[in-house]
């Protein structure tokens, strides 16, 4: 099986002599025509939630004080595809952002980049300076004054959530906001605001170049186009790969594109969409990689962070690490998420230290369920997915840590 190179072809050309011709092609076509192509493409967001991009943009269509934010926080462990784009072709990303800003008629354009991505931050800042003439030409053609700014995140995972990110730019406590109102109605400093992932915006020039109808011939219903996959873990050839959605299985990604497991060991499980998603075990990985198929398989594609674990990986340690992450990264504004993640982490730490009880396994499941129902944002809603699926699908690893004579076990 071969990699489907579509978006990556442009990224891999690099920024040298980049002439922003897709942007000017879009301006020639006009906002309405560009938007019609976007609608035809059926593009959905690549940041994790798979929300239809055209539907989001339509919500601000008639507004004249729109803010567009490119979300490059990329805090999900195992995800590094946005970094790949920024470091390999910042000019292409800037062009995608400017084209999108033109279509949504934005007055302000931000890119919010995670602080750890020092090289990407420097490259994006330098590219914006280099593109001064392009930005001026865009302003002249549209008559709209556009301010472009890089904002550097300070390392909190929750700031990747669009409303936390907006709070972070505003300089207030970056907890998730209650929705509605949605950012499209009341976003940054109360302006109608669109937040889109890096990869989502990078599809716009391709949709303008090839037309929305062509774009929608790739992929399957609900998952059109291609997807960048960040492949990592116990894999021979980790990296960023591009696949056509719905046409390739997880097994093919791991064994054909990634070259298989290190030392040819046995595959134990795969985390298919970052550590907020349920793991899949060996006989579940023939699932096709698209949003709907992954959901049917009981997990999610998320941001496309495929993490591979072999038989050297201990599910208890993995679950403890994930719980450690969530208990530290909760913003703490909703009690179930703040306290639930702390309790789960405590129980998993005790299990790992051979001080756990059998009842903890059921308690972890119950607390995760309560948190997922009561939490305000995706962090709390999905923090238990991986841990609970690990307990259900790899019980042997947990049982080895628990006392043989615990009365709970006898029930
Ligand atoms: C805790 C949390 C972290 C998130 N982190 C990111 C992120 O790093 N990058 C991203 O694009 N979306 C992230 N999201 C999703 C965003 O809230 C939002 O849905 C996305 O940026 C919208 O863009 P899209 O429609 O192009 O996918 C996160 C959501 C949550 C709840
Ligand atoms: S679910 Fe967790 S991270 Fe999200 S707003 Fe509530 S406390 Fe904060």
Structure description:
It is built from 21 helices and 11 strands. It is α/β, with parallel strands linked by helices and 411 residues long. It folds into 3 domains: 7-215, Rossmann fold (3-Layer(aba) Sandwich); 219-310, Ubiquitin-like (UB roll) (Roll); 315-410, de novo design (two linked rop proteins) (Up-down Bundle), CATH 1.20.1440.230. The chain starts with 6 loop residues before the first helix and ends with a helix. The mean pLDDT is 96. The structure holds flavin mononucleotide and iron/sulfur cluster. Iron/sulfur cluster is lined by residues 158, 175-176, 330-334, 337-338, 375-377, 379-380.
- Count of individual beta strands: 11
Termini distance? 49 Å
Uncertain runs are none
The largest β sheet comes out as: 5 strands, mixed
Strand order, largest beta sheet:
8-7-11-9-10
Structural class: alpha/beta
Number of domains: 3
What distinguishing features does this structure have?
411 residues; alpha/beta; Rossmann fold; Ubiquitin-like (UB roll); de novo design (two linked rop proteins); 3 domains; five-stranded mixed beta sheet; four-stranded parallel beta sheet; 11 strands; 46% helix; binds flavin mononucleotide; binds iron/sulfur cluster
Describe, in short, the structure shown.
With 411 residues, the protein is α/β, with parallel strands linked by helices. The chain has helices at residues 7-12, 21-29, 31-41, 53-58, 81-88, 90-104, 118-130, 132-142, 162-170, 198-202, 204-210, 212-215, 250-257, 291-296, 315-329, 335-352, 359-374, 378-382, 385-393, 395-399, 407-410; strands at residues 66-72, 106-113, 147-152, 193-197, 219-220, 223-224, 226-233, 239-244, 267-271, 280-281, 305-310. The chain folds into 3 domains: 7-215, NADH-ubiquinone oxidoreductase 51kDa subunit (Rossmann fold), CATH 3.40.50; 219-310, Roll (Ubiquitin-like (UB roll)); 315-410, de novo design (two linked rop proteins) (Up-down Bundle), CATH 1.20.1440.
